[in-house]
Design brief:
Layout lengths: L2 H18 L4 E4 L6 H9 L4 E4 L3 H15 L3 E5 L3 H4 L2 H10 L3 E7 L26 E3 L7 H19 L6 E6 L34 H11 L5 E5 L7 H12 L3 E3 L15 E2 L2 H4 L3 H6 L4 E5 L6 H9 L4 E6 L12 E5 L2 H11 L7 H20 L7 H11 L4 E5 L3 H9 L7 E5 L9 H9 L5 E6 H6 L4 H7 L3 E7 L15 H9 L6 H7 L3 E3 L4 H11 L5 E7 L2 H24 L1
Parallel strand pairs: 1-2, 1-3, 3-4, 4-6, 5-6, 7-8, 7-10, 8-9, 10-11, 11-12, 13-14, 13-15, 15-16, 16-18, 17-18
Helix pairs in contact: 1-2, 1-6, 3-5, 3-16, 8-12, 13-22, 14-15, 14-21
Protein name: 2-succinyl-5-enolpyruvyl-6-hydroxy-3-cyclohexene-1-carboxylate synthase
Pfam family, one: TPP_enzyme_M_2
Family: Belongs to the TPP enzyme family. MenD subfamily.
């Protein structure tokens, strides 16, 4: 058998097994050494290929698509430094538990470490940031090697998905010639109805005696709190709402919890806690006896202070599979169980439990006052907060909101009030970086879901080349670009007092006219000056096709003053109405 046939059958069986195991999308960055995989993936009838030239952009595009669909997405690049450009997105995927199938082409073994071009050490390149690494053999087409190719493809998919999802890495050495032959008979191998190695996994459920132990610890306590951090299960809101209603507990919900919006009951939902927990005296006033947290640590730094100051409370952290996401270092009970199932078990076994109603009412009054302030703001000019508030009012039902880090996620935390709209909120909060935000949102939009991205000017600048995907594929995305000409988050930090070095090291103004970049990539551009114009621009963008960028220009120093005045007014009003 000629080498070209061996190459074709080996790679085709691997690719076909990816499809049989559920892979539907691959993001390919062009290169020579990856030709066998690139052409075969593009040829397969059940796999959609997305061509993204820059590997860093491509990897974040795949990350966003995987986040939006909750399905594995494959990445493919050539050998050499192309593989290194994947690293930031792989770190984010690991930290935020996103399934990626990372496929890197490589030089054959005789061309490694001898000075050959585009040859670097790619063995375990991503270290502990991938769940599994496999160095694939040089292609052969014997029955045993075709079975080996299929078993590794199937294993890659189920390893990426099992337990806490994450990226896996397979490295493929190829000799020349690199072009496969799709004219071969039965090129995709054997026909089957399922994957080579199907996996059957059940939900974790706690034994009854453990449920009783948990209830024994809390039922004699008076003041409890449920906290929902970033998580993706859209069914959790209904389960949490029911448990909180029966037990009479406040529920602090992070903007990434998927619980601030939807059709579940929201009577006990507390979404304004970041504003009023900034007051140290209120954090003491609201001391909890126990806290049950679902999902990752909330975005809010005020809540972080709250958790740090109440280390003696009984803490529980619920993880669906495993993990140790406790950055505070409190003594904590970790509960590894399906969260929806756990709520049902706790409710069934603790139906008679009811906690302090005055405690719940205090949280609700503080939250109500906070909401009144957030809803009642009236500014003559656009501020960063009012821009985000207007966006959240205008965003369409049944759409996704992708949120940048730094100030964007914090303003969404403040102004995303509970709503009956069905809004799926995404962010790259695993490593909290600003890289790849444009590409991530466009990847989410590639699923066909309407996507709005809100981010700052530095995040936008950092990934402007990601806009090419919107032009290439006519992806529908609205970008609310909040431009304060620099790193606005640093103006809230102690570094702001160091005037000598602040602008150069932290403020970092870029002084760019982003309209020109938007036009270059074929997008529409709007620059509103007040809330009415902003709402009109957003509504217009949602009826346009392709890329639409709405830029709001603000001042960093004014933004700090505006936010601090808002928080102080909320705190003062709570003191008058609730504390005294």
């Amino acid at each position: 058998m000629e080498y070209k046939e061996q190459l074709t059958r080996f790679v085709a069986n691997f690719v076909d097994e990816l499809a049989e195991s559920g892979l539907t999308d691959v993001v390919i960055s062009p290169g020579s050494r990856s030709t066998p995989l690139a052409m075969t993936l593009a040829e397969h009838p059940e796999i959609k290929e997305w061509i993204i030239l820059d590997e860093r952009s491509a990897s974040f595009f795949g990350l966003g698509l995987a986040k939006q669909t909750n399905r594995p997405v494959a990445l493919l690049c050539s050998s050499g430094t192309a593989t290194a450009n994947y690293f930031p997105a792989i770190i984010e995927a690991h930290q935020s538990r996103v399934p990626l199938i990372v496929l890197t082409a490589d030089r054959p073994h005789e061309l490694r470490d001898v000075g050959a071009p585009q040859a670097i050490d790619q063995i375990k390149l991503y270290g502990n940031y991938v769940k599994w690494f496999q160095e694939m053999p040089l292609p052969e087409a014997t029955p045993s090697m075709l079975m080996y190719a299929r078993s590794n493809a199937s294993r890659a998919i189920h390893t990426a998905l099992e337990g806490n999802s994450g990226p896996v890495h397979l490295n493929f050495p190829f000799r020349e010639p690199l072009i496969p032959d799709f004219s071969l008979d039965n090129v995709w191998g054997e026909n089957r109805d399922d994957s080579y190695a199907p996996v059957h996994e059940g939900m974790k459920r706690l034994p009854d005696q453990i449920i009783e132990t948990i209830l024994f610890k809390i039922k004699s306590m008076d003041r409890g709190l449920i906290v929902c951090g970033p998580q993706i299960d859209s069914n959790l809101g209904q389960a949490i709402a029911k448990l909180a209603s029966v037990w009479g507990l406040p529920v602090l919900v992070d903007p990434l919890s998927q619980i601030r919006s939807g059709d579940h009951e929201k009577d006990n939902i507390i979404e304004g806690y970041d504003a009023f927990l900034r007051n140290e005296s209120y954090r003491k006033e609201l001391k909890a006896d126990f806290i049950i947290r679902f999902g990752a640590m909330p975005v809010s730094k005020a809540y972080l202070f709250y958790a740090q100051e109440h280390m003696d409370a009984q803490h529980f952290i619920v993880e669906k599979h495993s993990g140790y996401r406790e950055p505070v270092g409190n003594r904590t009970d970790f509960i590894y169980s399906d969260p929806v199932t756990l709520c049902s078990q706790l409710l069934e076994a603790g139906l008679e439990i009811h906690f302090n109603t005055k405690w719940l009412e205090k949280w609700k009054k503080m939250n109500s006052i906070t909401r009144q302030h957030l809803e009642g703001i009236s500014d003559k000019t656009l501020t960063e907060g009012s821009a985000v508030r207007t966006l959240l009012q205008a965003i369409p039902d049944r759409s996704s909101l992708y949120v940048g880090n730094s100030m964007a996620i914090r303003d969404v935390d403040t102004f995303f009030l509970s709503s009956s709209k069905d809004i799926y909120v995404l962010a790259n909060r695993g490593a909290n970086g600003i890289d790849g935000m444009v590409s991530s949102a466009l990847g989410a939009a590639a699923s066909g879901t309407p996507v709005t991205l809100v981010l700052g000017d530095l995040s936008f600048y950092h990934d402007m080349n990601g806009l090419l995907a919107a032009k290439h594929y006519q992806l529908n995305v609205t970008i609310l670009l909040i431009n304060n000409n620099g790193g606005g988050i640093f103006s809230f930090l102690p570094q702001a007092s160091e005037q000598k070095h602040f602008e150069a090291l932290f403020g970092t103004p870029v002084n760019l006219e982003f309209e020109q970049a938007v036009r270059m990539y074929g997008g529409s551009y709007h620059s509103p000056s007040d809330e009415t114009e902003l709402e009109n621009a957003l509504q217009k963008s949602y009826h346009e096709t392709g890329l639409s960028v709405v830029e709001v220009k603000t001042d960093r120093e004014e933004n700090v003053t505006w936010h601090r005045n808002l928080w102080n007014n909320i705190s003062d009003d709570i003191h008058k109405s609730v504390i005294q």
